[in-house]
């Protein structure tokens, strides 16, 4: 693989590097970055214009270095202008808000106890009066009537900053929402006035009506409830009614990706039309006309499914791929793929932190790189075996590229993914082929009834197969975790192995061995770090008491009346990532003003109930978890109440930041 053949791949890599570097630049102001960018552009232009054959050697490394520096600076600059802290009118700069004026941006989304929506703030009222402001607020209301996009609301109250996680390694909802540039939420109930009733634009209203019409047809003609849930998820991107048991079964089988409308589904639609027309064999006019129609249908499908971020990414990818195919019969897919990523990141640079964005592009890169190599390992004579092998190689290539990310974020590896994809991918293709035809003909009852029954039966058979994987022994490996350096080393090993198989040179063997050695040293270092741990962690939970005592690689717990959800979402993530899940038990005694913990080795630790301060306290340091970091805890600063966050007591004045 020669990178000089794929310029947009290089451009995107350095642009992304600039976006990733930006948070570590002390959030440099856009003006300073723009000046630096202009200086480097002028310098680059001057060097290119003054280029002569005699100066080739001296400029051989300088010119590319300046060019790539420009791309890094461009990534930093785009990130800086999207940084809300550089916008003086953003909500983050206001305090003492008593009411605010906002426009509804989305359709209502029913929740168990309220209705969620998103509003864009236009003005806020403080002690200084009404002031212009901007920013998004996630609201939760209980209005009897639906809030339509475009509606203008006068909301009484103060939007609250979404709190960060209170326990280390727990899911940080604030960070997740910040990726969408949403930093505030507000439970408004009925404390608002509807100043103007919004109306959807005609095209949006038409799309919503079409989606509701199609959803009604699915519920009418796909009779089995479980099949209807899968049909709505696969065909319309509606997963809100999906039963937890069904989702768990698909996740265990490694087939959850077919329920999340994404690049797979757009790719199936894209490939479906290629079964009947081969654009690479057609003349340019017919090729352009056909591919334009395919792109139009892809974007229509994206609109019907609600323009979810994953579908938008996939639609953008296939749009650029189609444009490349319009110009060439056999274009390289790497350049349009990289260009689509760069366009999306210029629009929203912080997409690079979104898990879906990472998984989408990593999976597609894995398929492009590894699938031809895997497929070449076996060439069965049977056409059906070859078809199954091709499907298997696609699933294996995607899994090979994405498993480090999946383990990093979700801590689970589906053991039978190889077999489940043999069922899930062809099943998804059949269901979508039948389903799209069903949706197109759903206006007429006779074909809709016939096709609906076929869709129903296809999904029922697929569900039976998927649920059977859940019953197999060791259906999934749980409680796994890769840190960022480990992920990078594993990807480096995969890429070096790929280069070795392609080029078959001794140099590539050395690269593979070098990465393996680095990976081994990293694991040794990680083990050594864990062996030095010695602390007590008091978790912040809604009910009861949760304490972990960590000594080296040994973990002991004290759990008193802790809710299962608290254990799963607040405690278990830290154990998976930092200490391990094999734990012993601590004996807890409640005596007057103290909690007595009997530690291993016969030692007893006394903690004050009010402050959790150890007695005696001269051999300890205390920190509390705040905004993703451990901060020093001074009980005197919390005389009346404890900080609502996890507390960490470190022994021997040695604090290991984890």
Walk me through this protein's architecture.
The two termini are 38 Å apart. Mean pLDDT is 84; it is low at 653-658. Helix 11 (309-327) crosses helix 12 (334-347). Strand 2 (109-110) and strand 3 (115-126) form a beta hairpin. Among the domains are: 3-86; 91-199, OB fold (Dihydrolipoamide Acetyltransferase, E2P); 354-412, no CATH class; 484-529; 532-651, no CATH class. It has 658 residues and is α+β, with helices and mostly antiparallel strands. Helix content is 51%, strand content 17%. Strands 1, 2, 3, 4, 5, 6, 7, 8 and 9 form a 9-stranded mixed sheet that branches. A 7-stranded mixed sheet has the order 15-14-13-12-22-20-21, with no helix packed on it. The protein has a 4-stranded antiparallel sheet with strand order 16-17-18-19, with no helix packed on it. The protein is built from 19 helices and 22 strands. InterPro entries: ComEC_N, Competence_DNA_uptake, DUF4131. Residues 234-500 form the ComEC/Rec2-related protein domain. It is a multi-pass membrane protein.
Radius of gyration: 28 Å
Distance between the termini: 38 Å
Round the mean pLDDT to the nearest integer and report it. 84
Largest sheet, strands/sense/barrel: 9 strands, mixed
Instruction: Assign the structural class, choosing from mainly alpha, mainly beta, alpha/beta, alpha+beta, or little secondary structure.
Output: alpha+beta
How many helical stretches? Answer: 19
Helix proportion: 40-55%
Poorly predicted ranges (pLDDT <50, ≥5 residues)? 653-658
Strand content range: 15-25%
Overall spatial form: globular
Total count of strands: 22
Protein name: ComEC/Rec2 family competence protein
Domain ComEC/Rec2-related protein: 234-500
Membrane topology: Multi-pass membrane protein
Domain DUF4131: 32-185
């Amino acid at each position: 693989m020669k990178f000089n053949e794929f310029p947009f791949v290089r451009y995107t890599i350095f642009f992304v590097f600039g976006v990733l570097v930006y948070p570590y630049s002390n959030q440099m102001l856009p003006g300073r970055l723009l000046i630096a960018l202009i200086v480097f552009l002028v310098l680059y232009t001057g060097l290119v214009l003054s280029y002569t054959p005699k100066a080739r050697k001296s400029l051989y490394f300088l010119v590319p270095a300046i060019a790539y520096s420009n791309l890094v600076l461009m990534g930093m600059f785009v990130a800086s202008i999207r940084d809300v802290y550089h916008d003086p009118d953003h909500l983050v700069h206001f305090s003492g808000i008593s009411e605010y004026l906002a426009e509804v941006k989305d359709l209502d989304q029913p929740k168990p106890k309220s209705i969620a929506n998103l509003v864009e703030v236009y003005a806020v009222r403080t002690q200084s009066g009404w002031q212009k402001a901007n920013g998004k607020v996630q609201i939760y209301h209980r209005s009897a009537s639906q809030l339509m996009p475009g509606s203008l609301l006068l909301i009484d109250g103060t939007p609250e900053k979404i709190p960060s996680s209170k326990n280390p390694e727990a899911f940080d909802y604030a960070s997740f929402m910040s990726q969408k540039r949403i930093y505030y939420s507000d439970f408004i109930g009925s404390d608002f006035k509807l100043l103007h009733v919004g109306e959807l634009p005609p095209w949006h209203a038409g799309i919503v009506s079409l989606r509701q019409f199609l959803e009604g047809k699915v519920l009418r003609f796909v009779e089995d409830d479980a099949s209807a849930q899968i049909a709505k998820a696969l065909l319309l991107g509606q997963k809100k009614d999906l039963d937890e048991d069904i989702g768990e079964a698909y996740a265990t089988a490694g087939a959850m990706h077919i329920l999340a409308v994404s690049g797979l589904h757009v790719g199936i639609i894209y490939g479906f039309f290629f079964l009947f027309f081969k654009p690479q064999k057609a003349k340019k006019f017919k090729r352009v006309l056909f591919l334009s129609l395919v792109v139009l249908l892809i974007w229509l499908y994206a609109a019907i499914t609600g323009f979810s971020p994953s579908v938008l990414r996939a639609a953008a990818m296939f749009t650029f791929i189609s444009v490349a195919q319009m110009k060439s019969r056999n274009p390289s897919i790497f350049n349009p793929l990289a260009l689509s990523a760069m366009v999306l990141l210029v629009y929203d640079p912080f997409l690079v932190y979104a898990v879906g964005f990472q998984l989408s592009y990593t999976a597609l890169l894995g398929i492009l790189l590894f699938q031809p190599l895997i497929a070449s390992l076996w060439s069965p004579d049977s056409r059906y075996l070859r078809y199954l092998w091709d499907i298997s190689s696609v699933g294996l290539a995607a899994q090979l590229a994405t498993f480090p990310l999946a383990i990093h974020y979700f801590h689970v590896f589906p053991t039978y993914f190889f077999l489940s994809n043999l069922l899930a991918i062809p099943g998804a293709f059949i269901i979508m082929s039948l389903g799209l035809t069903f949706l197109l003909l759903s206006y007429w009852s006779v074909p809709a009834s016939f096709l609906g029954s076929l869709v129903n039966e296809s999904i029922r058979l697929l569900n039976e197969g998927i649920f059977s994987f859940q019953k197999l022994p060791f259906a999934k490996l749980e409680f796994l975790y890769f840190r960022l350096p480990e992920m990078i080393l594993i990807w480096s090993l995969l890429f070096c192995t790929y280069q070795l198989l392609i080029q078959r040179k001794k140099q590539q063997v050395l690269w593979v061995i070098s990465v393996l050695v680095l990976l081994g040293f990293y694991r040794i270092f990680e083990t050594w770090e864990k062996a030095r741990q010695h602390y007590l962690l008091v978790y912040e939970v809604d009910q009861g008491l949760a304490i972990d005592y960590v000594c080296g690689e040994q973990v002991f717990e004290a759990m008193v009346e802790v809710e299962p959800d608290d254990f799963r979402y607040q405690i278990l993530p830290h154990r998976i990532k930092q200490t391990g899940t094999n734990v012993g038990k601590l004996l807890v005694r409640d005596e007057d003003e103290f909690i007595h913990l009997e530690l291993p080795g016969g030692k007893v630790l006394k903690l004050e109930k009010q402050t959790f301060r150890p007695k005696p306290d001269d051999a300890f340091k205390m920190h509390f978890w705040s905004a993703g970091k451990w901060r020093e805890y001074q009980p005197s600063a919390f005389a009346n109440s404890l900080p609502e966050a996890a507390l960490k007591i470190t022994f021997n004045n040695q604090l290991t930041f984890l």
